[in-house]
Amino acid sequence: MSYDYEDYYEEDCLGMHITSGSVKLKKDEKNVIGISIGGGSPYCPCLYIVQIFDNSPASISTCLEAGDEIVGINSYRVKGWNKSEVARIIQMIEGEVTIYYNKVHVNLKEGKSFDIVLKNLKHRLIENMSSNTADALGLSRAILCNDSLVKKMDEMEEVSSQYNGLMHHTEKYLRSFYAVAVSHKDLGYIMSEIGNREIQPNARTAFSKFGDVHIDMSKLGFSHIKKSKMMITDLKTYVNKAIPDTKLTVKKYLQAKFEYLSYCLKIKEMDDESANFNAIREPLYRVETGNYEYRMILRCRQHARKVFSDKRNDVMVKLELLDQKHVQDTAAQLLKLVESIAKYNEGCVKNLKGTKLFPLEIDITRCSFSKSNSFTTKLADKDETQSNSDSMSSMEPLFDVIGEKQNYDSTTLIDTS
C-alpha cells in the first residue's frame, strides 16, 4: 500500500527537532541487523524503530535510536509502507544494508511527565507486594522477570546481621581477655615485689621467677589482643563501609529500575490504546500525525534501559566482591584469630613448664611474716617508751620528797604478776 498525504493529518512533531542521515549496517550470522520496526500503513504515516537489540549491528553502530523514522532501505523508498514489507526487504538484502532515517532529537525531561512520576511511585509501593495482592487492588504494573538482585539484597542483610553479631562477640571476648591480661600483669608485679623482699634465696628465686612468668603471659595476651583488633577493624570496614556503599548503589539501581518499568508500562498502555482503536477501526489522532509522543516515550525508555543496565552491572560487581570477601576474607580473618589464640596458649604452656618451684618451703620465723611481727613489736615498744617518758616527767616533783631519783626502765613499769 503506497502512502498518500491526503489520507493522514499533517505530522505533529511536538516541537522536536528532526535531522536526516544514513548508516550502513553489516548483517550478523543470523542475517539480521537487530532492530524492531513499528508504525507504518495503514494507520501511521511513519515507520519508526521501536527497539534496538543489544550486541546487534544496529546497537554497535550507535547511529540509530528508538523513535527514529526509517525513510529508505538501500534504493527503496519505504515512506508509507507496511512494517512487514520493510522487514521482508531487509531480510532479502544480503551483506550490508543502508538505512536512511530521520532522527528525532528528544528532550528527555519532557518525556518524564507527571504520569511517569506516578507510575514510578506506584512501582515503589507494590515492589514488596505479592502478585495476588496487587491484582486484588487493581494495580497494573510492569514486572522485571528473574531479578535475582532482590534475593541478593536479602542475603546481604543476613550477612550484615551475622557480621554485626560476630563483631559484638569478638569485642566482648577481647574485653574479657584484656581483663585477664591485666590480672596476669598485676599478679606478676606482686609476686616480683614479694620476691624482692624475701630473705631466703629459694623463696626469693621462686617468687621472682613466678612473677616474671606472669608478666610474660600478660605480654603474650596484649600481643594477642593487638592482632585480634585487626580482625575487628576489617569487620567494621565491611559492615560500616562496604555494605552501606553497596546499599547506596542498590538504591540507585532501584531508582533506575522503577523509572525503566514506568516507561515500559506507559508504552504498554499506549499500545493497548492503539489496539483498541484499531479493533473498532477508529483513527487515533497521535498515530495519524506520526505518533511522535509514542516515539518520544520509546527514546526515553531506551535511555532509561541503558541507565538501568549500567546500574545493574555495578550492583552485580559489588555484590560479587562482597560475596568473595564473605567467603574468602572472613574465613582468613577467623583463621588468624584461632591461630593467635593457639599461639598464646602455647606460649603460656611453654612459660609455665619451667616454673616447677612449688611446693615451696618457707621458714616463717625468718621470712617477711616474722619481719612484720618484729616490726610491730618495735612500734609497740616505741609507743610504750614514749608513754613511760611522759609518766616519768610527771613524777619529777616527787624526787625531792623521796630524796633520790630512781632508775626506771621499761621492764620495771610492766606488771608481770
UniProtKB/TrEMBL annotation:
It comes from the Eukaryota. It is found in: Cytoplasm, Perinuclear region; Membrane; Synapse, Synaptosome. Signal peptide: none annotated. InterPro entries: AH/BAR_dom_sf (IPR027267), AH_dom (IPR010504), Arfaptin_fam (IPR030798), PDZ (IPR001478), PDZ_sf (IPR036034). One of its GO terms (biological process) is intracellular protein transport. SUPFAM superfamilies: BAR/IMD domain-like, PDZ domain-like. GO terms for molecular function: actin binding; phospholipid binding; protein domain specific binding; protein kinase C binding. Residues 144-357 form the AH domain. Residues 22-105 form the PDZ domain. It is a lipid-anchor. One of its GO terms (cellular component) is postsynaptic density. PANTHER family: ARFAPTIN-RELATED (PTHR12141), PRKCA-BINDING PROTEIN (PTHR12141:SF1). Monomer and homodimer. Interacts with CXADR. Interacts presynaptically with the glutamate receptors GRIA2, GRIA3, GRIK3, isoform 3 of GRIA4, isoform A of GRM4, GRM7 and GRM8; with NAPA and NAPB; and with BTG2. The interaction with NAPA and NAPB disrupts the interaction with GRIA2, conducting to the internalization of GRIA2. This is PRKCA-binding protein.
